[in-house]
Each structure stands twice: as structure tokens, then as C-alpha cells.
Amino acid sequence: MAASPPSRSIATGTWRRNAADSILLFDWTFPIPSGKTFDWAFSFAKGGKLQHLGAFIIGIIVGFLGGLFGKGGSAIATPLLSLIRYPGFIAVASPLPATIPGTLVASGEYWESHLLDWQIVWWSIAVGVPATILGSVFTKFTGARPLLIATAILVLGFGLSFLFLPRERKSGGSSPDQSVPETRPSYWRVRLVLIATGVGIISGLLANAGGFLLAPAYSRFLRQPIKKSFACSLAVSAVLAVPGTVVHAYLGHISWTVTGLVALGSVPFSYLGARIAIRTKASRLERVYGFVLTALGTFFLYRL
Prior knowledge:
Elements: E1 8-9, E2 15-17, E3 24-26, E4 31-32, H1 39-42, H2 49-69, H3 74-83, H4 88-93, H5 95-112, H6 118-138, H7 144-164, H8 188-206, H9 211-221, H10 226-251, H11 256-279, H12 282-303
Antiparallel strand pairs: 1-4, 2-3
Helix pairs in contact: 2-3, 2-5, 2-11, 5-10, 5-11, 6-8, 6-10, 7-9, 7-12, 8-9, 9-10
């Protein structure tokens, strides 16, 4: 019996750092058994129609989840774009500008429902933008794996806290106009500065807008209602994505075709996600959010 040729794979399932530009990338492994074909994988030829359709569908996914859970979506878009065989830098950088219009649209919907806290937003932007730039500089000196493990543990911890220690038990309203009285914990400005600094640095290191950490941090550390946390996270994420967009555009890492396709799918579905979140009971939304964060944290730890 003739020996079978070795199986092939289209990627590797690990985080890695590009030596030349110090950008963290995530590659995915899908072994292809000998004698079988994965026509769907290899049909995603560079610049092909199916690949462009995939980018549009990814935009729909990240837009809806972003509007629903108060995040930009670039952290989810990057591995999905890599999965359909977009090159590393394009997969990392192209979603950043694509998420800006979607987050702004979703933020507008939350604003109309009186859920934006402008003090939290402006303080976060003032501290978070320079922290994001600082994080980009730190990529030359910081190891990737410890940071990614710490981030995954943090996301998992947030998710478990939302599942088992909910704060929205008595919240039952699902009216679209849900203005929430301003509440401030002790030393709230100190807490906010620490949140914006930490998330900003991590965002710079990982080349994303940081929404996957901002919303749970606002809810847990600033003790804000879940919907207000989502609203503020969206507004801040839109601004934190700008420095990374400028840098990557200057370096030529952005495919504006991919950006346009992702944005085309994400903008209307960001609006839809925000509308659903605003009309969902806060207690139910918190449980779903906890489940999603727990799943993401577990998945990232498993892949690392």
C-alpha cells in the first residue's frame, strides 16, 4: 500500500508577532487530510468575489454584535478575515476604520435613548487616546503571549461575573427611552483614568479599539448600568480606533476595499444590534453578555 502524502494546512493556530512591524497577528490551523479537498477554503482566492462576499458577511456579524454589546468589533473581525485568507496586515488593520461608522451609528441610537454619559466618554477619550499611542510604541518591547493570556483571563472573569453576580436583577424595563440617573462610585475619576489607561495601552498593543474591555470595565469598576456601559463603550471605541487607523494607513496596511465591504455590512446591523439591546430587558441582556464574554475568554485561552 502506497504511503499517503502528508496532510496540508492553510494556517497555524497561534498568536505571533511580525518581526518587522511589531504587530500581533492570529493565524488559524485547519489540517486538510490527504486525498480530500477543501474547495471552500481554496476558493477564497485573493481578491476573488467569494472572498469579498466573506468580508461583507463578516461586517454584518461584527456590526450586529458591536451594536448589541457595545464594542467596535475589530477584535472579532481580524481572525474571521484571516480565516478567509486575507493577509495578516490587511486582516489586522482593515477592520479598524470599518468599525468607526458603525460604532457612531449605534452610539447615536443609544444617545437618542439618553444612555450616553458624556463625562465618562470625554474622560475616557482624553486618557485613552494617548494611552493607545503609548501601547503602539510598547509593541517593540512587550511579549505577545503574556499580554494575550492576561486579556483572555480578564474577559473570562468579566463574563463569569456577569453570569453569577448580576447587577441588573431588579431592572425590568425595556422601553427605548431609558434615561438612567447618573451614579458615581467613590473615587470614580481615579477608577476611570485607570480603566482608560489600561484599555488604551492594550488597544495599542493589539491594534483594536478596546470595546471588548471597556464595556465590562464600565459596568463592574464604575458600577454603571449595562446599557449605559455599552453606550459609552461604543462612543469611546470609535475615537480610540482613529490613531491606529492613521498609523496603519500611513504604513500601507489597510485595504480600503476590505474596509468598505466590512463597513457596508456593519453599519446597518450596528444600528439593528443597538435597537435590540435598548429594547431588551437589562437583566436578560446582562446574562447574554456574560455568556458571550465567557465563551470568548474560554476560546482565546484554549487557542493560546
